[in-house]
Amino acid sequence: MSEIEPSDAASISDTPNLSDLSQRDKPWDKHRANADKVSVYYADSEFKDYGDRIHYCSEFLDFRLALSESDGVMKLKLDSARFCRVRHCPVCQWRRSLMWKAKAYKILPKIVNEYPTYRWLFVTLTVRNCQITELRSTLNWMHESFKRLTKLKDFPAIGWIKSIEVTRSKDGSAHPHFHCLLMVQPSYFGKNYMKQSEWVELWRRCLRIDYNPVLDVQAIKKGISPATLVPELLKYCTKESDLTGDREWFLELTRQMHKARTVATGGVLKDYLRELEQEPEDLIGKGDELENEADEQHLYFEWKRKHKKYKLAQ
Ligand SMILES: [Zn+2]
Question: What's the mean per-residue pLDDT of the chain?
Fold first, then answer.
């Protein structure tokens, strides 16, 4: 290794960045920089402990250099890091989503194999925006309504995965909605077909409201894997620009979402995908694409807060 002092400001700009050495690890800088923002939001609040944990989240990344089996190129593969696991930590939220997606990509083809004639829908269920202080009660009401929906005899799905997304509107209100991947009987595209207006009617009845809620239904074409919807289904719960946009909103989001479960599975899909309901144990991604581990070489990167970059540790 070189003799450059890491504290030397002039030399640090010459130190290689993780983002330059590994294309696929570029997102680290953005997520870690956003983690710094929310850590500061928490610092002078009742969630000071979260702030401290996020501050130290993934400050050091240990990568191993490994030959990729797919294209024979040397790649950096994360080997270890310490994650804070605070729900709204942008780094941990990102890692959690990656792990859930990997799980879904692995399992969905098996389900398609076992239920080859079944079809898939991607449905987004919404209600009118609420105040952020009413988010918890609104989500509880939506969950109850969804439960009612799944028990109706007109409900066409025999299995589902449902995830919560909460976005922040310009006026500061919250927009909670559910993304649902539904596995429906083959007869759905025949005698049991439901038009969009019928879906709205059904959801309205379950919500027990007097307005027509906004609802989107997409049918996944025959022969197309439901896995194509996984990125939309298992992304973040709240996008990072909304997490970092307003301190008070963010703190209230934390209060309102405390212990709320963001992904749920049901019907026949529960047996395959119930793991998605839990925090993944592994946020590193061990076990996938394992390469030759003999004479492995490690590279270490350190979060440089001022530079907003992970830099090679000297
Ligand atoms: Zn974290």
Answer: 92
Residue 135 to residues 53, 57, 242: CA-CA distances in angstroms?
25, 27, 15
What residue type is 90 in one-letter code? P
Going from the Cα of 35 to the center of ligand 1, the distance in angstroms, rounded, reads 7
Looking up tokens 């909304």, which residue turns up? 242
Distance 139 CA to ligand 1 centre (A): 25
pLDDT range class, residue 234, cuts 50, 70, 90: very high
pLDDT tens digits, one per residue of 70-82: 788 888 999 999 9
Residue closest to 301 by CA, chosen among 1, 15, 3, 2: 15
Q: Where are the domains of the chain?
A: 1-85+283-314, 114-278
pLDDT, tens only, 141-170: 999 999 999 999 999 999 999 999 999 999
Topology of domain 114-278 in CATH is Alpha-Beta Plaits (3.30.70)
Q: How far apart are the CA of 89 and the centre of ligand 1, in A?
A: 5
32 alpha carbon to ligand 1 midpoint, in Å?
9
Cα–ligand 1 centroid distance for 163 (angstroms): 20
